[in-house]
Amino acid sequence: MKSMTGFAYTEKQTDGGSVAVEIKGYNSRFLEVFVNMNTAFSPLEPRVRSIITERCKRGKIEVNIREQKYDAPFSVNVNAEAVRAYSAAAFAVKSLLPPSAYDGQHIRLAEFLSFDGVLEIEKDAFYEDAEWENIKDAFLETLGKFEAEREREGRHTEKSVLSYIAIIEERLDTVAFFLPKIEQTIKDNIKSRFAELAADKVDENRVIAETAVLLMKYTVAEEISRLSSHLAEFRAETARNSGASGKKLDFLSQEINREINTIGSKTPLIEVSRAVVEMKDALENIREQLRNVE
Length: 294
Description:
Helices cover about 60% and strands about 15% of the residues. The chain is built from nine helices and six strands, in the order βββαββααβαααααα.
């Protein structure tokens, strides 16, 4: 069993710089992967996304990668044509303005530098494989920590969930113990009704026939059997360590809930009703925790 929530962070020194990787996981019905990295490194996003989808089957996962380079080659060139064009445009605008609209201020150098196209910035060419080698180790180490954290939380959740499964099994044993009493209560009720209607002259064959009909309708033997089967399958699924077991366990919990409700609607005994309430309470705790299972 594996949790969908987790957090991991790694920062490593690389050749000529450093890289920091952060991975966070949240609950989600489906797999959602969000990769946030330097714009220049966006060609690496498919590689990151591919590895995440191989390791994770459900959950909202955020990956943040930041790379910093020291003394990276960096050049700034002046576009002379752009400067001349902006200057000419500025003087043309000035000539069209009335004297009252002009305050006598010249265009400042800082303003010129902010104009689009005046400065042309050149960085190193991007080499995808080389950049991947720079971030790969930090990314995989962080992902390993993230997976370990999810598995640790998953083991804790599994232990808690199975403790509630044990409660349901114990209460189901209580229901099974009272099954003969449930059936006998049905028979006694039928006999009592016939005796009232027939003035103590009870047709035993009629009683047997009516009892058989009501037993088919109100006995919980089949529900006990199906519920036992669902609980056994629930335990087997958690023992398989298949990773993404959340959907299967959620389905089984729905089936368990159905059988518990049916037992509760059929039983006439207070002892069984009490056991049903306790089973429902345990199952609610299970379903709450399964929302965090991958």
